[in-house]
Amino acid sequence: xxxxxxxxxxxxxxxxxxxxxxxxxxxxxxxxxxxxxxxxxxxxxxxxxxxxxxxxxxxxxxxxxxxxxxxxxxxxxxxxxxxxxxxxxxxxxxxxxxxxxxxxxxxxxxxxxxxxxxxxxxxxxxxxxxxxxxxxxxxxxxxxxxxxxxxxxxxxxxxxxxxxxxxxxxxxxxxxxxxxxxxxxxxxxxxxxxxxxxxxxxxxxxxxxxxxxxxxxxxxxxxxxxxxxxxxxxxxxxxxxxxxxxxxxxxxxxxxxxxxxxxxxxxxxxxxxxxxxxxxxxxxxxxxxxxxxxxxxxxxxxxxxxxxxxxxxxxxxxxxxxxxxxxxxxxxxxxxxxxxxxxxxxxxxxxxxxxxxxxxxxxxxxxxxx
Length: 370
Hints:
With 370 residues, this protein is an alpha/beta fold. It has helices at residues 33-45, 61-69, 88-101, 118-125, 130-139, 155-163, 183-194, 214-222, 236-248, 253-262, 279-292, 303-312, 319-329, 333-342, 351-363; strands at 8-10, 17-19, 21-24, 50-52, 78-83, 107-112, 143-149, 168-172, 198-202, 228-231. Helix content is 45%, strand content 12%.
């Protein structure tokens, strides 16, 4: 036993109170049903009450495993699943399969999963689209409310919150991504609060990139504005480790500054947006983050860390957006380079070198010859 009990919080205006740590379903694909059951046992044992999964996780494998593990105790959790369908018939079909595999007659929140363009959002909200189908499902008692997730820039979340009567959103949040997508905390969270939308935050360990820093990463993310941190825990030890961190509460302002200063994953390359550079230079580094999460730095790394960086760097696939925004900005590259050469970074970053790589990434140049 861990000896920790998870704190609880009201989830937006849903009327539900849930644990601040949620169990994510994606990584249940990596383990057997027997181990999934052990993980669920441990999660419930520390007071966990929020579990999310998706139809697309192993074509229902995650839903099926979690459904088995929750037999006889479905009423102990708030359950969420997701569908990639954008049309009414498709999402209704997915919902019925989700209910069957999860062995339940209702799901608290059913998400529009991985919405990656305004065109997809418009299809969802069109007459006869997925939103209409879920509104009917809500009237039938099959779901309590609708959710929204995406891996695209936060502007899509702002549109979704305005256009759909959402109960909850799922958005990424960690101390790596915060350095180049500050709009999540500055724009999305306030709008969600204004509309009474609950906020669940995925990827507090940045898809595993922050594996060396689980406690500071979780406590940092816990204080960034979301209600629930969704973690893809696939061992009992992971559950207890995450529960211990969340039970300690959010990192203080001073602790957050220390985390950003000392984080081994940020090191002497990732821009902390401290204000020591011009707005244009900091914006350049944010766009670099869109390209590869500032993971590809051409600095020495041990083989395992290097392989992890290569696997995760382009997870969001935002390069085209970044390069278009760079072209639209019309910055004077010479002036940016000259400024970068004059900066003494408090985090030890060679700003001139970083600017050279950032400009090359955004121009689409060959990095491996620099």
